[in-house]
Amino acid sequence: MPFRALQRVLRLLQGGDSSEGLLRRMEEYHPETYLHMRRTAVYSVLIGMRLSLPQEELDSLYQGALLHDIGKLTLSKELLNRKVDPGQPSTLTQNDIAEILSHPHAGYDILMPDEEAAHIALYHHRRKDGYPADVPLEDMTLFADIVAVADTYDAMTGKRTYRTTPPRSAALAAIQDTSRHLERCGRALADILSENPLLTDALTSGLSSRS
C-alpha cells in the first residue's frame, strides 16, 4: 500500500467525530462489541480504498462502519456475553433470537436522520438468506456491501476463547459462498490481506478483544 494511502487510513483512525458519544457508551456497555466495531471500520476503509473511493466517501464509509453495531446497545449484556460453543446445542431461546435479530432495526432508529449510517446499520447483516428479511436486497448500497463483508470477516476471524478461529481464506470463501452479491467487496478484501498482511495486522493489533 502506498505511503500516502496509509496516511489516509491513519488520519481517519485518529480523527475525532460526532459519533464519539455513542462509541463511549458502547465501550462502557460492551467492550468486545466496541472493539469489533472499530476493527470493522478499519477493514471497511481498506476495502473502500481498494475500490478507489474518493476521500469524502471514505470519510462517510468510516463513520457508518464505526457505528454499524450500535443497535446492540439495546440488547441485554447477558445475551451479548453468551458464549456459543459450535460443538454443543444452542442455548438460545426464541426470545433470545428475536432480541438479536432486532439490533439492525434498533441501529437504524438510533442513527437516523443520518441516512447513510442508518442504512449501513440496517443492512449490514442482509444476505439472500439473512436478516432483516423485510428490507429488499436490491436496496443495498456499496457502503452496506463493504461493511457487510468487513463485519462478517472480523466476526469469523476475531479471537474467541470458546471456538477455533478459521483461516482467513476460509472466512473469505464463506462470505462469497453465502452472499454472491458481495463478491466484489470480498475480492477487494482478499487482495488487501494477500498483499499487505502485516499492515492489516498492525492496523488492528491495538483493537484486539480484552481478556
Keywords, separated by commas or semicolons:
about 210 residues, mainly alpha, Hypothetical protein af1432, about 65% helix, globular
Structural account:
With 211 residues, the chain is mostly helical. It has a single domain (3-82, 93-207), classed as Orthogonal Bundle (Hypothetical protein af1432), CATH 1.10.3210.10. It contains twelve helices and no strands. It has helices at 3-14, 20-29, 31-50, 55-66, 77-80, 94-101, 103-111, 115-123, 142-157, 168-178, 183-195, 197-204. Helix 2 packs across helix 3, helix 3 runs antiparallel to helix 4 (55-66) and helix 7 runs antiparallel to helix 8 (115-123). It is globular. The mean pLDDT is 79.
List unreliable stretches of 5+ residues. Answer: none
Tell me the total number of β-strands: 0
Number of helices: 12
CATH architect. name: Orthogonal Bundle
The secondary-structure class comes to mainly alpha
Kindly report the average pLDDT value. 79
- Biggest sheet architecture: none
Query: What is the name of the CATH topology?
Result: Hypothetical protein af1432
**Cα separation of the termini:** 32 Å
In angstroms, what is the radius of gyration? 16 Å
**Oligomerization state:** single chain
Strand content: under 5%
CATH classification class: Mainly Alpha
- In N-to-C order, the SSE pattern is HHHHHHHHHHHH
Which shape, going by the Cα principal axes?
Answer: globular
- For this structure, what is the CATH homologous superfamily? Hypothetical protein af1432
Total count of domains: 1
Helix content percent band: 55-70%
